[in-house]
Design goal:
2 domains, alpha/beta, Aspartate Aminotransferase, domain 1, binds 4'-deoxy-4'-aminopyridoxal-5'-phosphate, 3-stranded antiparallel beta sheet, 7-stranded mixed beta sheet, 43% helix, binds glutamic acid, 384 residues
Length: 384
Amino acid sequence: MKYSRTIMSLSPSATLQLSAKAKELKKSGRDIVSLTAGQPDFPTPAPIAQAGIKAIMDGKTGYTPSTGIPELKEAVAESYSLRRNIEWNSSNVVVSCGAKHDLANLVRAAVNPGDRVLLPRPYWVSYPEMVKASGGIPVLPEKRLDPCEILKAADLGAVGLLLNYPSNPSGYVPSSDEMSRIADAIADTDMWVISDDIYEDLVYTEGAVPHILDYRPELSSRTAVVSGVSKTFAMTGWRIGYSLANREWSKLSGILQAHSTSNPCSISQWAALAAVEGKADKEKREMYRSFRDRRDMICSKLSDVEGIQFDRPEGAFYVFPRLPAVNDTAGFCSELLDEEGLAVIPGSAFGAEGYIRLSFAASDDDIREGVNRLNRFLRRRYTV
Ligand code: PMP
Ligand code: GLU
């Protein structure tokens, strides 16, 4: 049988693959510490779970409108209109099966074969594959994103740009000056922007993350915002994300969704409504404080590991150290797993060879033990 050349050119998701492999090894009895998964290790807060149970008991188990129940779309539009000071309503919102699905829909709706899309490095693992799945060409600048890179890419025909702050894998948050210059550069081009804001509520610095729409609100006509409940409310398995975009872009995403998945799970939508309406804000604050404390702990432990360099992450739940003289991080991670039973993600999955990503969405014990194992492995490797 012949398969699609486009789909055959895609790489598997290293994040999902390695998390699954670590789980499998653990199940088979091996002593494994996994700092792979980018998902909270807390249960979904009870008020949200109860809203899901109530939806089942109330029989809200049939198809819903394919882009989501009106109640959730209205709540998302209201909450993000306030947050970003942009006037959005339900017709701008699509509720999908996770933020990943929203991103895939939006990319699919905007990219034509041969279109170039700018993806600043380090990028989240799925962005290049989403662009390629539409026949597009990822453009990966060598340096950190700056106005010159944007203008250069636009001159070379790039049609769009994906932004993700706080960043997965680095936890990087741009300064307001940096974001304002990025917004100005975009405004000088015709490029569309997708701002993946999934970690917007996991920020450990003072104040909000500078957002492109704060500086250039007029860019809302060609900027889509993507977020969801997975990370902030420990709801990764419920599969609910949402996007806010201009009406045409949202309509096209909605048509694509109607012909592929139909609506996201009805029960999950009612549970997500409880989250968006603030019914679990106390639990959200508690989980946030745990992630902030773990960020401090992993940074303090890593600062005792000789030879690695890292920037303190200002958001999300990842730290992204640079290794001493390693050119094959996939090989490094595989040996680390074999010899020490520590699973982490190679930087190559994020377009950053020479780095590894450690998730601190893990227990304090796993974080401590994980860094000890990394330290031991590096000492053995670099001590003659
Ligand atoms: N964007 C980024 C940067 C992520 O790390 C993730 C994590 N999975 C997603 C999107 C997708 O989130 P979801 O689980 O809601 O699909
Ligand atoms: N986003 C998470 C991560 O980067 C979960 C895995 C995935 O969806 O790729 O680890």
